[in-house]
């Protein structure tokens, strides 16, 4: 019997649920006058749904004159928020609490006189927000090779919330040689870590992994990279229609996980399409011996 294993931690995290809830509440109060700078979460389908309900997604704050502004889940540079407050907009800060923690710990390290290292993607909005919180006075790295080039008497480290644990450990190891004192704050999101650990466990026992979520989502992309690095054929898709039957030739078991911004409806659609492709297949929650 063929099997589809669904990750227990697949789908929305608490931070994304909070951002969506706050946005919906704002839309219910003042439809069509609610704005966000870029996508509030990295899920194009959900963002389109919120736009249908009245959310205005803009690419430049100069497009916003009045109304309510939602700070996206990844946070924003401080200067943007200050400018919008000057214009009299009502600011609703939907920044994920885990992202807020990164900003807070970065400020602490700078105040204590540490040379600040931020581990993550320098182009990701979360990291841009953290840099803004410390007036851009930090170095962003993302690889062990970059870590080995760092030298200093007192070095402090924070991580992008969705950074893979094993990569973070390698980077800390790489920093040790060049630092006399190293202070590390573990700002990795525990919900993301649970998802990553489960994805690794799945990839070790299934024939193929399907990872569902936005292509611009860092945590989803990391999931796909992690499972692929385990040697398991992995396909990162945004929607069920992207599934291709040839991916499953000779396959007996399929693992399915999803990024933190992926709603359950998308996961259900992928499962439905997988069942059609595989034919006779049981659907299980990974680690739970119970047919769905």
List the SSEs and their pairings.
Blueprint: E1 2-6, H1 14-29, E2 34-37, H2 44-52, E3 55-58, E4 68-71, H3 78-86, E5 90-93, H4 97-111, E6 115-119, H5 125-133, E7 139-141, H6 144-147, E8 152-159, H7 165-176, E9 179-184, H8 190-203, E10 208-212, H9 218-229, E11 234-237, E12 253-258, H10 264-278, E13 281-285
Parallel strand pairs: 1-12, 1-13, 2-3, 2-4, 4-5, 6-7, 6-8, 8-9, 10-11, 10-12
Describe this structure in words.
With 292 residues, the chain is of the alpha/beta class. The protein folds into three domains: 2-12 and 191-285, 4-hydroxy-3-methylbut-2-enyl diphosphate reductase, catalytic domain (Cobalt-precorrin-4 Transmethylase, domain 1), CATH 3.40.1010; 14-96, Rossmann fold (3-Layer(aba) Sandwich), CATH 3.40.50.11270; 98-188, 3-Layer(aba) Sandwich (Cobalt-precorrin-4 Transmethylase, domain 1). The protein has helices spanning 14-29, 44-52, 78-86, 97-111, 125-133, 144-147, 165-176, 190-203, 218-229, 264-278, and strands at residues 2-6, 34-37, 55-58, 68-71, 90-93, 115-119, 139-141, 152-159, 179-184, 208-212, 234-237, 253-258, 281-285. The strands form three sheets. The protein has a five-stranded parallel beta sheet, with helices on both faces. A four-stranded parallel beta sheet has the order 3-2-4-5, sandwiched between helices. A four-stranded parallel beta sheet has the order 7-6-8-9, sandwiched between helices. Helix 3 links the parallel strand 4 (68-71) and strand 5 (90-93). Helix 4 runs parallel beside helix 5 (125-133) and helix 8 (190-203) runs parallel beside helix 9. The longest helix is centred in the first third of the chain and has 16 residues, at 14-29. It is flat and about 60 Å long. The mean pLDDT is 94.
């Amino acid at each position: 019997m063929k099997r589809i294993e669904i990750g227990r931690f697949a789908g929305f995290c608490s931070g994304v649920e909070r951002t969506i809830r706050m946005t919906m509440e704002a839309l219910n109060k003042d439809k069509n006058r609610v704005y966000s700078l870029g996508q509030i979460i990295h899920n194009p389908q959900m963002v389109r749904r919120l736009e249908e309900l009245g959310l205005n997604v803009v690419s430049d704050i100069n497009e916003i004159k009045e109304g309510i502004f939602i700070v996206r889940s990844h946070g924003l540079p401080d200067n943007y928020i200050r400018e919008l407050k000057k214009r009299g907009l009502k600011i609703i800060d939907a920044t994920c609490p885990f992202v807020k923690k990164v900003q807070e710990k970065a400020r602490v390290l700078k105040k204590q006189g540490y040379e600040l290292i931020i581990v993550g993607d320098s182009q990701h909005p979360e990291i841009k927000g953290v840099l803004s919180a410390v007036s851009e006075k930090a170095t962003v790295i993302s690889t062990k090779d970059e870590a080995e080039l760092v030298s200093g008497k007192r070095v402090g480290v924070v991580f992008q919330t969705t950074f893979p644990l094993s990569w973070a450990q390698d980077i800390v190891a790489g920093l040790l040689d060049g630092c006399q004192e190293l202070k590390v704050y573990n700002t990795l999101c525990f919900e993301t870590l649970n998802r990553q650990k489960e994805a690794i466990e799945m990839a070790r026992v299934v024939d193929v992994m399907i990872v569902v979520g936005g292509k611009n989502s860092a945590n989803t992309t990391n999931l796909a990279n992690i499972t692929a690095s385990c040697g398991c054929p992995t396909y990162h898709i945004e929607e069920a229609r992207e599934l291709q039957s040839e991916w499953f030739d000779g396959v007996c078991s399929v693992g399915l996980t999803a990024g933190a911004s992926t709603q359950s409806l998308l996961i259900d659609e992928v499962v439905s399409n997988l069942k059609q492709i595989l034919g006779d297949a049981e659907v299980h929650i990974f680690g739970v011996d119970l047919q769905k």
